[in-house]
Amino acid sequence: MMKKTYLILLISLFIFSCKDEAQDADIENSDEYESLVLGIPQSQIDSIRDSEARKQPILKKVSYELDSATAIDVMLPVGNFLKDYSFSSKIALTDPNSTSENEDSEPEAVISIQNAFSDGDSDELLLVGKSTDPNIFPVSDIKKFNEPEKILFEDKNALLYVDGFGRKLMYYRQYNPTNSTYYLYTAEVPKYNDPKMQYAALFSIYKKAQNLLAFGKETATENLTWDKVKPSLSEIELKNYNVYYTSLQKELKYFLKNNDSVNINKDKIQFYLYRDEDHSKNTFDQVGFLATSQYSGVFGDLDFENRMYSGYFSQIYDSDDEFKFIKKISDNSILVSVTRVGYSSNTTTNYIISSIKNEKGQFYLISPTNEEGSSVTALMNDYFSKHLKI
Amino acid sequence: MMRSIFPILLSALTIVSCNPVGKTITEETPVDGQLVNTVENLDLKAGDELVIWGKMDASFLKNDNVPIFDLRYNLSLDGKTIENQTVPMFAGNDKIIKSTYEIRKEEEQEDDQYTDERTTDSEAPTEKIVEPTKSDWSFEQEVIRIPIKKEGKYTLDYKANSNDEDADSMFTKVAVIIRKK
Questions:
Q1: How many CA atoms lie within 13 A of A374 on its CB side?
Q2: Which of A27, A290, B104, B124 is buried most deeply by CB count within 10 Å?
């Protein structure tokens, strides 16, 4: 008898020992169902919302040409840009079951709003069109034509909700009577593993939408520093940027030896970090040298030992392309331009080159940037070159 | 006598059934050759062994040639490097577990099932040329064991990349798993 019991026990233990805890299949009351739809408790969502709402966005004006005759202006946080897009929004604006096509109510343009981490083109869209009806595409319609499982926030112009698949979505409408133009901002949050990050992204997008036409709030880019931009970024953006800089920090600390380099080349963000053996031995700093010499010429004529061209730029440029010092950004960083001489036209791209010195030697960090060297990447690179973190 | 053996056997079996290769500390993490991966707060005691495993999941392998990767790692305790090395990953044939292997059928006979997955080469298939054997192979392989001499909370930074062009193929998925024995 004893043996048998043991045997059964043994078998059952064998079966259950590696299994996860059995899941509760019964979802009886609606509270449980609601928390299942939300993914995390409402109180956590509220605190994420408050924390994103407190952030003061740093905005710049961005223009977009609808056609050769008309352009629209919008305000976007630094690090964001507009891109052409030609498909429709994931949020239905009109009755998807209706067969009648109403030409008047079709938006004229669908534009994708992107940042360095946008996964696809369709996550955040701006739909722009003309109408005499200031109440066109009301929130009540959006609720009717889509299937919000749980509404997180709703007012006259905004709807933030979770749908039956757990997707977090936003609809935000604005109307400008002076040019009879409506602006519809629709967004679906990318599927980050952590639901907290999804909500941080959602409320950050909501803030972006609220400021879309806030033309009085522009920040002058010449005075921007990473210290000013950092508190304005959403949790998710900071986390994403940190992935790169933590990796660069470890490369400096543990992995880059001799003339080793690392090339982080993602869709919308690029870094090239390398150690220069010769400069390390001779305590030579090409960033200071280029600033003093105000170099302007072709790569091939650079008159000091360097791995700038052979390491990074040779992947993109020929040795007779033009390399020019533009300005000093700080003691550690300079802005340069590289011009590729083409058959019909020349293309110029700007780069920030930062010098990083540590006990292991002389390193350089190169990234593409804008004409002023004021892109978020440039601000972060310059800060990183001094503090080895962002 | 019998009675006292059973509980021991029982507990031994339950432990063994879960732990053939040690305790998994991090689940498989896909390798991104451009970025350093970091595992923090590794609770290790003297006598433990930290074991780094590589996971290969390859389709359409030519002649079973798996691309070899270099794994660079740095193990540190309180900011001080304990070990910093570069070791090959998938270089030999030993210490392989969870291996599943299947030969891809010849193209001529597979019109229906397999052609969709193939790249749409514009080259016309030449009949008589002997194609290399294509296979699907997925396995886990021990890369390195690191014996721990001092108790503490360790940090492991690692990076894996390969010079083999097959390593970049969308049909080759490589991941790293950290275990402890």
A1: 14
A2: A290
> What domains does chain B contain, in order, with CATH numbers?
21-106+132-180 (2.60.120)
Q: Given this model, what pLDDT does residue A106 score?
A: 76
Average pLDDT, chain B: 79
ipTM above 0.85, yes or no: no
A40 and chain B in contact, CB less than 8 A: no
Residues of B with a Cβ under 8 Å from any A Cβ are 2-3, 6, 9-10, 13-14, 17-18, 34-36, 38, 72, 74, 76, 81, 84, 157, 159
Q: Are A14 and B13 in contact (CB under 8 A)?
A: yes
Note whether B6 contacts A6, CB cutoff 8 Å: yes
Closest CA to A367 of A313, A314, A327, A321: A313
Length of chain B: 181
Give pLDDT tens digits for A237-268.
899 999 999 999 999 999 999 999 999 998 88
Domain spans, chain A: 33-97+104-219, 223-387
Residue A67 is encoded by which pair of tokens?
Answer: 């056609």
Average pLDDT over residues B81-91: 92
- Distance (Å, rounded) from C-alpha B142 to C-alpha B20? 13
Mutating which of A1, A15, A255, A367 best tests the B interface, going by the most B Cβ atoms within 10 A?
A255
Chain B residue at shortest CA distance from A272: B34
Q: What dihedral do alpha carbons A43, A49, A50, A53 form, nearest 10°?
A: -170
**Domain covering A33-97+104-219: architecture:** 3-Layer(aba) Sandwich (3.40)
Q: What is the DSSP string of B91-153?
A: -SSSSEEEEEEEEPPPGGGGHHHHGGGS----SPPPSSS-PPPEEEEEEEEEEEEEE--S-EE
- Out of A160-164, A171-175, A342-346, A381-385, pick the least confident: A342-346
Classify B110 in phi/psi space as left (phi over 0), alpha (psi -120 to 50) or beta: alpha
- The answer to whether A258 faces chain B, any CB pair under 8 Å, is no
Residue A296 region, left (φ>0) first, then alpha (ψ -120 to 50), else beta?
beta
- Nearest-Cα distance to chain B for A3, in Å, is 8
| A156 shares contact with chain B (CB less than 8 Å) | no
CA distance linking residue A197 with residue B178, whole number of Å:
25
Contact at CB, B72 and A255, closer than 8 angstroms: yes
pLDDT at B53 exceeding the cut of 50: yes
For residues A360 and A252, is the Cβ–Cβ distance under 8 A? Answer: yes
Reported pTM = 0.81
Which chain A residues touch B10 with a CB distance below 8 Å? 6, 9-10, 13
Cα–Cα distance between B52 and B58 in angstroms, integer? 19
Asked if the Cβ–Cβ distance from B34 to A14 is below 8 Å, we say no
What pLDDT was estimated at residue A209?
Answer: 96
**Can you read off the two tokens belonging to residue A62?**
């961005």
